[in-house]
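Milestone 3.1: sequence recovery, worked example.
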């Protein structure tokens, strides 16, 4: 599985591609940051992010896009910018038919370090170790993007099994409901 992780941001949007399967060593295929100038018009910044994400999608052809789920912070401006950058990344992938998954920061930290409260240095250190890199990717946004991709590769098998179980349960429940309706209708005709 090849996953493009995106750590959304207006000034620095971290991107990282990881390939592999759960339980096996993973390989980094690329890491970087899509940058936009802080003093540029918002519309131009979003176009810049779109162009950067499109280049990464063209070059690496990921099977899945893993994006950090935006969570509420005290600074509404920061949250809005992060949400806008996130939406651009999701739009780029969806336009191509690439599935998009969202992971919370604590899910990513827990998957990569074992603790949902890990700091950026711990995440960077574990990404370096897991991908057998010489040094942590800089800036931290790039390491966070790789952590998102790793998280998804490791969590996808369990998530798929859960989705299959829910679908099976839903199908059985619908079948039972139809049988009950048919029995009720039959009972009404014979009365």
């Amino acid at each position: 599985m090849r996953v493009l992780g995106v750590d959304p941001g207006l000034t620095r949007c971290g991107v990282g591609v990881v390939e592999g399967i759960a339980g096996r060593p993973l390989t980094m295929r690329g890491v970087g940051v899509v940058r936009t100038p802080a003093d540029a018009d918002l519309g131009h910044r979003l176009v810049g992010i779109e162009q950067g994400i499109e280049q990464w999608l063209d070059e690496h052809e990921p099977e899945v896009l893993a994006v950090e789920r935006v969570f509420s912070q005290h600074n509404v401006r920061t949250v809005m910018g992060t949400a806008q950058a996130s939406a651009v990344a999701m739009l780029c992938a969806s336009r191509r038919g690439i599935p998009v998954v969202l992971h919370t920061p604590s899910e990513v930290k827990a998957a990569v370090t074992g603790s949902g409260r890990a700091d950026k240095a711990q995440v960077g250190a574990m990404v370096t170790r897991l991908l057998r890199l010489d040094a942590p990717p800089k800036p931290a946004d790039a390491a966070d993007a790789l952590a998102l991709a790793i998280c998804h590769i490791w969590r996808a098998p369990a998530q798929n099994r859960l989705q299959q179980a829910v679908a099976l349960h839903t199908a059985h429940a619908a079948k039972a409901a139809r049988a009950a309706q048919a029995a009720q209708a039959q009972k009404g005709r014979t009365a």
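The mean pLDDT is 91. Residues 54 and 107 are 26 Å apart (CA to CA).
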